[in-house]
Structure formats: C-alpha cells, structure tokens
Amino acid sequence: MIREFKLRGFKMFAEASFEMAPLTILAGMNGAGKTSVIHALLLLKESVRRGDNIVPLNGPFGLELGSFEDIQNWNTQDSVRFDLTDDNDAVYSWELTGVASSLYAEIQEPGELPMLFIEGERVFQYLCAERYGPRNILGSAALPPDLLEVGFRGEYSAQILYSLDSLSIAEPRRCPGFGEEDAALLKFETERWLSRITRPVQIDTDSISIRTVTALRFRVPDGEWVRPPNMGFGVTYALPVILAGLTAGNGGLLIVENPEAHLHPAGQSQMGYFLAAMASAGVQVVVETHSDHVLNGIRRAIGEHSILTKDQAIIHFFDVDGTDPQTLRFTETGSIASWPRGFFDQYQLDVSALTRVRRPRQ
C-alpha cells in the first residue's frame, strides 16, 4: 500500500507531499491539481509496463499531457521527481527528464520496484471520468481471464462479466444483506451492488462470433431484457467501478475519477459506501470526486457502519488560492475534523441565500 506520495517539479507542483490511506479522497476546485496526482501514478505504471526507461506522455490510459515542457513545473528547471513510500517504510524514487518539445520523458527507475507496479492479477486499475456510456456491444481484450481488467474507460466490462462470472468473491467485498443461500460469485455480487447503487437490475452477457466483442443487456426483476441504451447512463457508468472493485487483487490499487457521474444522489451516497467497503477489504482506493453525496456515503461507512476506522480514510482538499492542498481527517463519528471554506459547502451557501430572500423585510 502507498503511504506517502511526493511530487517535485510536476505540472503545478513545485513540491507537494500527499499522505495516503486505504481510502484517499481528492476533492476541491476545478483545475487545482487533483488529476495531476493521478497522472503521476499513471506515468509510473506505464513506465514500469514498458520497461525501457521511456514513458509516452500521450496515449497510455488516454493521457494527453503534451510535451515534456507541459509537465515540468514552470517555476523550476529541475527534473521531475516522484517519491513513493509504502507501508513498510520502503522509499522508491523516479526521475523524469526530457527535451522541452519531446512527447515522451526519459525515466530513471528505482533498482527495485514496488509490487503495486509489477504486472499481476488486477493490482493496478484506473477508471477515468470519461467512461463508456450505454453500448450494445463492448470490445474484448486478447488476454487470459486471470489478467483481464475492465479497462480505463470500462470498455471490457462485458468481457469481465462473461469470462469471470463464477469468480468467487470474498465475504468482505460482498454486498450487505446477502443470505446464506446467495451465491458469492462475481455476477451475482455485481448485480446486488449495482441494484443497491442504481435500481434493482439483472445482467446478461453473450460472447459474439469469435469473441472479439461481447454483448451486454439488462432487465429489472421479472421484466424484459433490454439493451444498454434503454437502461441509461447511470447503470453503465457504475458497472465498471463495481467490477473493478470486486475483481481487484488483494493489496492492489484502484483509482476512480468521478464515481458519481450520472448517478442519482442516493446512488452517489451508496457509491461512496461501496468504495469504502472495497478499501476495508484490502484494496487501496484513490477517488477523485466533486460529490458531497459520495463523501457522505463514505462518512456514513465510517461513523454509522464502522467498516473503516477514522484513520483508514483521508481527504486532500485542493483550492485555487495558491496554497498547498489541505489534508483533512475524519472523526470516529464520520465528521470532518476541520471543515475549510469552499469544501462541499455550496448547499449551505445556497440555502442561506434563499433564506435571506424569503426573510420578510423589516
């Protein structure tokens, strides 16, 4: 597990350090640096995957970072550096250099790599904000079942369900309320979580032709099967998040951008609970969110359901006032120890403004 992640000379960060927990929440204003933290992790993963000391700045994971001068902090001419500390206090360092106009960076890796970045059974998964919406068919990866992932846009969700439908799900990751007779298999646990987050729903998949594509369809209980466009965006956007969490390797890392996309407020809260449940079950989760409902679902998971302790989740709040990101901590009851101005306070501001409008003028 990553315990601390430092960025030096990368994009807007001359130097910044981020404490990380089983569940790390990145929140705050647009364009304040949240996604840059995720980009740094993705570059490290891609450099390890290639193994040739070169990391492209455009293409992998859908990145479009431009040239080396675009990722180098404008206040320094030093090389870009990332330092990662794991929960055993081992420190790993990467240094990125390059010509200003280069579309790639040359990277010097540590002599030994953390297990998190070594290829394995779904130990590093990333879901971007721009996931696939409702599609009748999805692609299939040319990989054996034990190496399949949902893809950074959720493009292999149907194949994961088709190939791993009978994968056994450990009890800590199972949806609450399951009965003794309920099968602890991927397909059924996915349906239960998806029903909790969106609406009661069942899923069916079918491999087409030579298995280069996989079809997906849904139905409400006792209803007719319908194609994804007739089910809507919320279900198809939430599906890969659930699949990634349920199939992630123990000790793996799951990064999710905007898990709240296209979900009803109640579903957003349940999504927060789901991510907290996965973090409590041995998956390190990094989530970027703009949803107070997702945050409140996590708060309830800590304070009401006690599936995470207050120290197993942490928030980094990014503002645009030029200050460093603030580290916020939870209390045992799920509250935020210090609530800064601008941190998910828009509801209170709007209600106060409406109250003043309604107040009778003296």
UniProtKB/TrEMBL annotation:
Residues 6-101 form the Rad50/SbcC-type AAA domain. SUPFAM superfamilies: P-loop containing nucleoside triphosphate hydrolases. Residues 214-296 form the ATPase AAA-type core domain. It comes from the Bacteria. Signal peptide: none annotated. InterPro entries: ATPase_AAA_core, Bact_Antivir_Def_Nuclease, DUF3696, P-loop_NTPase, P-loop_UCP034888, Rad50/SbcC_AAA. Residues 309-351 form the DUF3696 domain. This is DUF3696 domain-containing protein.
